[in-house]
Write a structure and sequence with these properties.
This protein is 0% helix and 45% strand. By secondary structure, the protein is mainly β. The strands form 2 sheets. Strands 1, 2, 3, 5, 6 and 8 form a 6-stranded antiparallel beta sheet that branches. Strands 7-4-9 form a 3-stranded antiparallel beta sheet, with no helix packed on it. A hairpin with a 7-residue loop joins β5 (87-90) and β6. The termini are far apart.
């Protein structure tokens, strides 16, 4: 009868010593601002009665998601200031309408967050049957 036995023993270089490594990684992530715009359906009547007729109010629903602080503002698309008194904006569509002017007005602000923030903008033209006037919505991440 022939027999054999194999025994495995750790070599001296394979001792049971504990070691650890620390890695430091630096990552630069560019700022990101994402804006989604949708038409807003108004649950209350969208027209406001005045003595000369009805003013139709149109709403936009904006959702802003940013990796840094941001400001959403509204202003006139042209530098003609005397005719802009007819275009007005509001945050709630029912009250506190302000004239759209060449000076940007703050609609909403937000801070660095992974959660999106919603903002509503309502527009109306008080110049009767005249066509609406262009406005600019601007998002700035200073």
């Amino acid at each position: 009868m022939i027999g054999s036995a194999v025994i495995a023993l750790p070599a001296n270089a394979q001792s049971y010593a504990s070691t650890s490594l620390t890695h430091t990684v630096f990552v630069t992530v560019p700022a990101r601002v994402k804006v989604q715009v949708a038409s807003l359906t108004v649950s209350t009547p969208a027209s406001i009665k005045v003595s000369t007729g009805e003013l139709n109010t149109v709403g936009l629903a904006l959702t802003v998601n940013a990796t840094q602080a941001w400001v959403l503002s509204i202003g006139s698309a042209s530098d003609v200031t005397n005719s802009k008194a007819g275009m007005q904006w509001s945050r709630d569509g029912r009250s506190q309408f302000s004239a759209v002017t060449t000076k940007d007005a703050t609609v909403a602000t937000g801070v660095n967050s992974f959660d999106a923030k919603a903002a509503n903008v309502f527009l109306r033209n008080t110049n009767g049957s005249r066509d609406g006037e262009p406005v600019v919505l601007t998002v700035v991440a200073p």
